[in-house]
Amino acid sequence: MIISDAYLIVTSPGRNFVTLKIVTESGVYGIGDATLNGRELSVVAYLEEHVLPTLIGRDASRIEDIWHYLYRGAYWRRGPVTMTAIAAVDVALWDIKAKVAGMPLYQLLGGKSRDRVMVYGHATGRDIEACLEEVARHVDEGYKAVRVQAGVPGIASIYGVAKKEGEPYEPADSDLPAEHVWSTSKYLNHVPKLFAAVRERFGDDLHVLHDVHHRLTPIEAARLGKEVEPYHLFWLEDCVPAENQEAFGLIRQHTTTPLAVGEVFNSLYDAKALIENQWIDYIRATLTHAGGITHVRRIADLAGLYHVRTGFHGPTDLSPVCLGAAIHFDTWVPNFGIQEYMPHTSATDEVFPHDYRFEDGHFIVGEKPGHGVDIDEQLAKQYPYKRASLPVNRLEDGTLWHW
Ligand SMILES: O=C(O)[C@H](O)[C@@H](O)[C@H](O)[C@H](O)CO
Ligand SMILES: [Mg+2]
């Protein structure tokens, strides 16, 4: 199990993905996702210059030791670039270990806690009517849970709402950052109407979710949480930026709407107070950005003690490698909540052959040894890297805002 080679594949079948391949002397290899949306090449440089040369000659079976070598050994701990680089190595090593054991990854973690993994899809529309049509399409396709985001009258364009009806939105949609203009008051006045319309048309059984994308202050988030209580959301996501974890304490005092946060977290320490104080209900830290299986398992275990469940980030800017590994994790983790799902383009699915499958609003884990996702390196070469940026958000007076 000695590591003989480790290299990166950067490909852009519709959008950029960075993939790490670790090869052992026996020929068994593992794959990890190293995609940090909009900052892809910074992770490439970190891995190529500082990490990959140190892996050659190491025993691939010593996952825990290698994790700490890269975390403690770097001296500069945490941060999205470092933790994405560590995650890519970690997931590739778990893939190797499971392949060598001849088992699907979920078996190494402790076996199945469930037969299938509930996902939520994304319904977006320029207005409430268009959005309801998209919710209906998802319900027809079998989804049991849908994230609902609509355009707001008076706001020209909102991140998270697709530009074309029926198509998913692309998180990094321009070469240099596009600028959006934001109005909190218009948004707050509109969202309760959206969810009233959703419940009116689809009844009580459908799980509905909403992402605020960090744009509110704590007291505004508290108001929104209270006003949507009659529509019993599955969760309200990222209602405020989470650097100040105590802000969630304030929101919590005001509303019973369940709260989800963590897609930008990269460490247990980003979520420690949130979890220990029971200020949140779902933790969204993901394998690719929070140190891989080895670290996210620690986050999930801590969360479990406090009734906090997982709800992994799963947009198109995480590769099928991340999604495949996440489905194994979701199949095992005792305190599973839900898995986000934005279908990849068919070009992406061809570059990353995989054995997970979507059925009736759920993912079914594959049974191949490892995490079940591979990369077609020849095909990947046909799609060169293309710089793409996430947008920024400004208030109507020009102030740069959270998004
Ligand atoms: O809930 C989500 O899926 C998101 O908020 C994404 O759209 C992120 O913004 C994107 O992944 C950033 O790269
Ligand atoms: Mg989000």
TrEMBL record:
The reaction(s) this protein catalyses: D-gluconate = 2-dehydro-3-deoxy-D-gluconate + H2O
NCBIfam families found in the cross-reference section: ManoateDhtManD (NF043051), PRK15072.1 (NF011654)
Function: Has low dehydratase activity with D-mannonate and D-gluconate, suggesting that these are not physiological substrates and that it has no significant role in the in vivo degradation of these compounds. Has no detectable activity with a panel of 70 other acid sugars (in vitro).
All copies of domain Mandelate racemase/muconate lactonizing enzyme C-terminal, residue ranges: 128-258
EC number(s) on file: 4.2.1.39
Protein name: gluconate dehydratase
Pfam family, one: MR_MLE_C
GO annotation terms (biological process): amino acid catabolic process; carbohydrate catabolic process
SUPFAM superfamilies linked to this entry: Enolase C-terminal domain-like (SSF51604), Enolase N-terminal domain-like (SSF54826)
Transmembrane spans: none
Record-level Gene Ontology MF annotations: gluconate dehydratase activity; magnesium ion binding; mannonate dehydratase activity
Coiled coil location: none
Gene3D superfamilies given in the database record: Enolase-like C-terminal domain, Enolase-like, N-terminal domain
Top-level taxon: Bacteria
PANTHER family (UniProt xref): D-GALACTONATE DEHYDRATASE-RELATED, STARVATION-SENSING PROTEIN RSPA
